[in-house]
Amino acid sequence: MIDSEIVINEKECLPVNRLNKQQIDWFKDATARERDTFLAKGEAGAIELLDADGMMKVYAPAIRGHIIGEPKASFDEARHYAEVRLHPLQIRANLNGEPVDEHALGITGFHGEFVQQAREENLRFKQIIHLGSELAHCNGLLPAHLLETLQSIVGENREQLQEHLPLFLLDEEEEDGHVGQLGFNDSVAKDQAYGFLVCAETPVPQVFNREQAIGDWDYTATWWFYDETIERIWAQARAWCQAYLVRRREVALQV
Fold first, then answer.
1. Pair 188, 165: CB distance under 8 Å
2. Closest CA to 200 of 238, 165, 228, 164
3. Is the pLDDT of residue 107 over 70?
4. Which H or E run contains 10?
5. 65 CB burial (10 A radius; 0-12, 13-18, 19+)
6. CB 93 within 8 A of CB 87
7. End of a domain among 53, 77, 108?
8. CA–CA dist 44, 152 (Å, integer)
9. Is residue 47 part of a domain?
10. Do 157 and 223 belong together in one domain?
């Protein structure tokens, strides 16, 4: 395998992310019940550290990035310890019934999870467009770069997006493009479709080896998504990427 190639769907035992600054600050002042509820929604894993001498790697058992015990010699040992501790936490959280609005508090930790998932699944966002801020500054006609992007979305991807955006109004074959753009703006305003339009991409697998797929970022497959939040789009992009790899594998094995 050459340097630029990557294994697309290889599963690794990666350490979990630590709590971010906002989560740490909130955690300090949270009640015991709030902490239980917060941790119970996470996963058991391990955080990689150096031992007291700074010479050897050790692994601290952690739940949702919060260390819950002394470091262990192996990743598996630390993760098992965390898994054993997670179950009673989940039971207590269910009994407590005290919800924590993580979005309002800004402590979801989504972006840390985003990075880890992107790395593991070889998926990234190639382009992010916030339609609300783009359309707020146009007088009926779309900015040239936005119009070009919307017109470039074709095929099945375009058909799916038309559930949210009237892309047919922007067809280059239309005699009066200005009328189409004005109609697009009016339709978006009526539906308040001012969310995010995002292009996701993943390497096209060139070689399948047992359960692995090998490709590189010089040759990628892309797909556009629309939704109100980046979190929802990321979930859709992950599902698309997994389904895409399954289809590519099926085609490759039929040859």
1. yes
2. 238
3. yes
4. none
5. buried
6. no
7. 108
8. 43
9. yes
10. yes
